[in-house]
Design goal:
By secondary structure, this protein is of the alpha/beta class. About 20% of the residues lie in helices and about 25% in strands.
C-alpha cells in the first residue's frame, strides 16, 4: 500500500489486498450468527492506517457481488515494522459485520488466509473532545457516547482512543449485546428492547435531555439506526449540547464520485462517504417517517400458515407460479433425472413451428459476465412430431404443459394452432417475440396492429387459454400488451430475450452469423421488472373482466427475484438461463417462496401480488 497524496497534501485512500486473519461469529449477538468479527491483516505506512470514525469499502475477492460494502472500523492496531520493507508496518483492522445481504454474507463466509479487496481508509473522523482545563475539579465525564445495534462498532472504536473513565457509554440493542469488549467507560449503560440485558426498552429508556443536563455532558457522539440518531439530535439540541453523528447510506464508490450516498443537510445534499460519515448533528435533516408499510407486508412469523402457492391462468390451475421457460428446459423430461421436475408449476415447451427446423448456423452460445447470449434459431422437431412424441411425455408430468407456438407467417401460426387445438395441451403460449429468426417471431410483436391481428387469428381457432409472449424490443410494449388483450389473450408473458451483439476480439468480427442474438440473464432483470411493472399497471386500469395474468420473465435466479416480479404484478414467473448454471434453481425458488410466505403470513400469492403497484 502506497501513501499517495493529492495536491493539498491529503492522503488518498488506497486500494489493496488484505488477508483474513480470522472471521467468526460475535458472542452475545441476537439472533445467533447474525454479527461477525472480521480481522484483516494489512501492510502499509503507519499514517495509512485508519483513524476513529473512518471506514473501508470491503469486498471478498472470491465473491460474486459487484460492489464492496462500506464497513466501519471497530478496532485497529499497528503491530510491527514489515520485515521486507522497514518503511512499512504490519497491522490489523477489525470490523464488526451485520449479516443482512449478499455482500455481507460473502464477507461473513470468509476463512483464514482468504483475500479481501479493500479501499480506504475513507471518510472523516470523530472530532476529539476538548481536554479539561487545568485545575478543573469536575470529575464527572463530560463525554457521552451512544451506539445502537451494529452502530456500536465505530463509536466503540473511537471510545477506546479516549482516556479511560473520561466518557459514559450507552449501548442500545433489540436483544443481546456485543462490541463492548474494549471499552473503559466511567459508566456503561445497556438497554435492550426485550429486556435480555440492562434496562428494558430502547435508548429513551436510558437517556433524555434531562439526563444530559444532570450528567453535565458537554458533547455527544453517536452511531446507530436513523430513528435513534434523530432522537439523539433532538435531545442534544434541547439540552444545548453539541452532538456528532455517524451516518450510513448505500454507496458505490466510497470516494465521493458516484453521488449515490447523499444525505439531506441544512447546507444541501452532502456525500455520506466524503463529507461524512461524521456530521455535525445540527446540520442534519431527519425527515419524518413515511407512512408505514401495509399490514400485509409485515412479518407475522405465523408458522401455522400453510401457504397455497397455486395460481390461475384463466381456468387452468398451476400448483405454484414457477414455470420452466421455453427454450431453456426442452420438454421437461430431459431434466427429470436431475431433479424432481414435478415440483414445478408448469413447463413451457421448446418453441414449436409447423415444420421441423434446424436452426441457425455458426456459433449459437456466447457467455458474458452477466448473462448468456444465444442464436439457436428455433430449432425444433415441428408440431406434428411434438404431438406424436414429446407431448405424451410432457402430459405425464405433474406441471401444467404449455405449448410454445411460433411461426414464420400468419398462415404457419394458424396451421400450427389448429393442430395444437386438437390435442390435450392445457395452455398455448403464442410466441411473437423470438429475436433469432429472419421471418416471423419478433416481427409480429413489434407493433400493436400486427400483435393484435395474430392474437385475434389464433383466438378464433382455439378455446384453450392463450398466453401471448412479447418482445422487449417493441417501442410500445404496454400498447402491444393491451392490443393482445383486446384481441382475446388470456395472459401475457413478458419478456423474451433482449437483442445484443458480441464481437470476437481475436478475429475482429461478430461472433454470431446473424450478428444480433438474444441475451438473457441477471443483467436484464431490472429492465424486465420495469416492463412487467408498466404492463401490470396498465392492466390494473382495465375493467375487472378484461384484466389478465402476466407471467414475468427475465434474469430470475432466486426466490427473491421471483418475489420482486410478483410484487410488480406478475401472477407467475418463468425461469430460463439460470437453470443452466444451477439445475435446482426452480425447486429452490418454490421452496424459497413457501418459506417467505410462511414468514410473512401470506396465505396465497394474491396476498402480495402487485403490492408495489
Amino acid at each position: 500500500m502506497s501513501d499517495t497524496k493529492d495536491c493539498q497534501g491529503n492522503t488518498i485512500p488506497v486500494y489493496a489486498k488484505g488477508t483474513v486473519a480470522s472471521c467468526g461469529t460475535v458472542s452475545g449477538a441476537v439472533p445467533e450468527n447474525s454479527v461477525y468479527s472480521l480481522k484483516v491483516n494489512l501492510t502499509a505506512k503507519d499514517k495509512s492506517f485508519p483513524k476513529p470514525g473512518q471506514f473501508y469499502m470491503i469486498r471478498a475477492t472470491k465473491g460474486k457481488t459487484l460492489l464492496g460494502r462500506p464497513i466501519s472500523v471497530f478496532h485497529s492496531e499497528i503491530s510491527k515494522p514489515n520485515k521486507e520493507n522497514p518503511k512499512l508496518s504490519d497491522g490489523q483492522i477489525e470490523f464488526l459485520i451485520l449479516k443482512k445481504g449478499k455482500g455481507t454474507e460473502e464477507l461473513c463466509s470468509l476463512e483464514k488466509s482468504d483475500s479481501v479487496d479493500i479501499l480506504g481508509p475513507l471518510g472523516n473522523i470523530f472530532p476529539r473532545p476538548k481536554a479539561k482545563k487545568a485545575g478543573d475539579k469536575n470529575s464527572k465525564p463530560e463525554v457521552c457516547i451512544i451506539g445502537g445495534g451494529i452502530g456500536v462498532a465505530p463509536v466503540a472504536g473511537f471510545a477506546e482512543t479516549l482516556e479511560a473513565k473520561s466518557y459514559d457509554f450507552y449501548a442500545s440493542f433489540k436483544s443481546g449485546k456485543y462490541g463492548l469488549k474494549n471499552l473503559k467507560a466511567s459508566k456503561l449503560t445497556v438497554t435492550t428492547d426485550d429486556g435480555s440485558w440492562g434496562i428494558k426498552g430502547m435508548l429513551p429508556a436510558a437517556i433524555d435531555e434531562n439526563t444530559i443536563k444532570e450528567k453535565g455532558y458537554k458533547v455527544i457522539y453517536a452511531c446507530g439506526p436513523t430513528p435513534m440518531l434523530s432522537y439523539v439530535k433532538t435531545i442534544a439540541e434541547k439540552a444545548g449540547v453539541k452532538c456528532w453523528l455517524s451516518m450510513e447510506s448505500k454507496m458505490a464508490c466510497g470516494m465521493g464520485v458516484c453521488l449515490g450516498c447523499t444525505i439531506e443537510t441544512t447546507e444541501g445534499y452532502k456525500r455520506c462517504c466524503k463529507d461524512g460519515p461524521v456530521f455535525d448533528g445540527t446540520k442534519l435533516i431527519f425527515n419524518k417517517p413515511s407512512a408505514p408499510a401495509p399490514q400485509v407486508l409485515e412479518a407475522r412469523n405465523n408458522k401455522k400458515v400453510k401457504p397455497d402457492l397455486s395460481v390461475k391462468i384463466r381456468d387452468v390451475v398451476l400448483p405454484n407460479p414457477v414455470i420452466g421457460s421455453s427454450g431453456t428446459f426442452g420438454f421437461g423430461v430431459e431434466y427429470k433425472d436431475v431433479f424432481d421436475v414435478n415440483k414445478l408449476g408448469g413447463i413451457s415447451s421448446k418453441g414449436l413451428t409447423l415444420e421441423p427446423r434446424q436452426g441457425n448456423s455458426g456459433i449459437r452460445i456466447w457467455e458474458t459476465p452477466s448473462g448468456l447470449m444465444n442464436s439457436i434459431g428455433l430449432q425444433n422437431p415441428g408440431i406434428p412430431h411434438f404431438i406424436e412424441h414429446e407431448l405424451p411425455a410432457m402430459l405425464k408430468l405433474k406441471p401444467v404443459t404449455i405449448a410454445n407456438l411460433s411461426g414464420s407467417t400468419l398462415e404457419s401460426y394458424v396451421e400450427g394452432a389448429k393442430l395444437l387445438d386438437k390435442t390435450q395441451v392445457p395452455v398455448i403460449e403464442l410466441n411473437i417475440s423470438c429475436p433469432n429468426v429472419s421471418a416471423g417471431g419478433a416481427s409480429f410483436g413489434m407493433r400493436c396492429t400486427t400483435a393484435g391481428e395474430i392474437t385475434r387469428a389464433i383466438r378464433a381457432l382455439t378455446k384453450k387459454p392463450l398466453i401471448v409472449k412479447l418482445t422487449p424490443q417493441a417501442s410500445d410494449v404496454v400498447g402491444v400488451a393491451l392490443a393482445c388483450i383486446e384481441a382475446g389473450a388470456d395472459g401475457i408473458s413478458l419478456c423474451n430475450s433482449f437483442q445484443g451483439v458480441a464481437i470476437d476480439i481475436e478475429k475482429g468480427r461478430p461472433v454470431f452469423d446473424k450478428v444480433k442474438a438474444g441475451f438473457g440473464g441477471p443483467a436484464v432483470r431490472p429492465i424486465a421488472v420495469r416492463l412487467v411493472y408498466e404492463v401490470c399497471s396498465a392492466i390494473k386500469q382495465l375493467p375487472k373482466e378484461k384484466q389478465v395474468p402476466v407471467v414475468g420473465i427475465g434474469g430470475i435466479a432466486t426466490w427473491e427475484d421471483a418475489v420482486e416480479f410478483i410484487m410488480a404484478g406478475a401472477t407467475a414467473v418463468q425461469v430460463g438461463t439460470n437453470t443452466f448454471a444451477n439445475p435446482n434453481t426452480m425447486v429452490e425458488i418454490v421452496d424459497g417462496l413457501k418459506s417467505f410466505m410462511v414468514r410473512k403470513g401470506f396465505k396465497t400469492i394474491e396476498d402480495f401480488r402487485g403490492c408495489a403497484l
